Write the structure tokens for this entry.
Amino acid sequence: MKNLLTESLAKLASETRACVPPDQSREHSRAGELTGYAWKYYGDRLKAILPALGTHTAMRPDQIAHMFGGVPQNLFHVHNWRTDVETVGVVPAEFIREQSEASWPMSGRRR
């Protein structure tokens, strides 16, 4: 899982500054572990982690520590997804298709 993530991150723009994983309501997704891998990969280039709260309340420090392990707490920021969103880049659809096909060869094809 770590290798697949870092291979994918290597193909993205190197200016990545933020990560938006799900919040504690999706803890079972292993997003905390993946976020940790992203933090180690990007190092100081990662400036903010914005847990996608949806309709949930902001994560408490103990919830962040539990889900995201050793990722520094100061990287986590609370945001209002309805008003605080600014587009800083776009992941090309072709890249998503290529990555999907690599993982699930039949994913984009009709039978």
About this structure: DSSP finds four helices and two strands in the chain.
